[in-house]
Amino acid sequence: MTTRPGPRTLVALAIAAFGAFAGFLLNGDVQAALVVLVAGVAAVLVVGGGDPHPEPLASANDREGEPPLAEVVEAFVEPVLVIAANRVALANRAARALLGDHILGEDVRLAIRHPAAAERLLNPDDQTSEAPIHLVGLGTREQRWEMRIHAIGPGMRIVHLTDRTGSYAAERMRVDFVANASHELRTPLASLLGFIETLRDEAGDDPGTRARFLKVMFDEARRMQRLIDDLISLSRIEAEKYRAPDQQVDLAELVEEVRTELAASADERGHDLVTEVADVSPIRGDRAQLSQLLHNLVGNAMKYGRPDTPIRIAVSPNDSMVQISVTDEGEGIAPEHLPRLTERFYRVDSGRSRAAGGTGLGLAIVKHIVERHRGRLDIASTVGKGTTVTILLPAHPLS
Questions:
Q1: Domain CATH code at residue 282
Q2: What pLDDT band is residue 353 in, cutting at 50, 70 and 90?
């Protein structure tokens, strides 16, 4: 049974709400303001605000006459629990979905089955009690959570769980990216330093040896230059990811331009390029990035397709989209590699890729360009027959 709060309780609740609002204005942190509000409301409800009829704590799933604390806890998107005497007194919908409906009234050690969480929860006097605890494996084995505990009254605390899985994955990708980039740069740099030291010694006196070493050094320097150019390009494309392209691009004209450039290059496969361009309207895009996309896709086909086999570059309408496809007749790619081809520095055959001058970033750049243009990317391949990369871009010309 519940009773109406008295005037002193109402004043205290108003003060708690004002404190939370003031914290939000000062810090701009919505989650922190909500935690302050929950803590203030809970403290008022537990102490009773000096009213002769304090409102008792109710279960979180008591919907009739639900107390304000349960309503505020339920407003959180992330899991929140209220612990009283080391038992779960309240748990919002997110907490019950994560830990199970059975946690209400349960010992907190059974509700949150994690050694680090249990140790902190059973030591309320710990000086670091408000520092975050990182929990691995709560929910699923891959999930990572950050747990914060706030004291709200005698024997009562609020437990707030924040899902950090996405942040951890992003950090892991960043660390891997830096490690891979460092490795890719270190390899040609070590080669350059080794040849320079050799040339400084007696090997530099022999014209044939000197010419051979200088060629290797030039190739390694160009490899570093390509990698740095791709890293800068990838960074620029990611920075523009949420800015819609604002140029009008004639894809038929662009494809022919790219074909002419590559056919005129020193690459012996230039004569294998074949274009099949249908009548399509100009689209809204970034011309430089779309040119880079075509150079990367056609360049890959030239590197990995069999010599003297056609490389087809096709452009055609596809419902409300414009389709670009690049097809080679190479060795093809095994199915297990296809989902990872757009990862940075992922290579099916590292030795062959480096020998062909690949940086391991070409398809990652293509993926980000397609995402910026709100398009779709598909890679289909048959071992022994070849690979087709298909790009679908929205057919929305500038008005």
A1: 3.30.565.10
A2: low
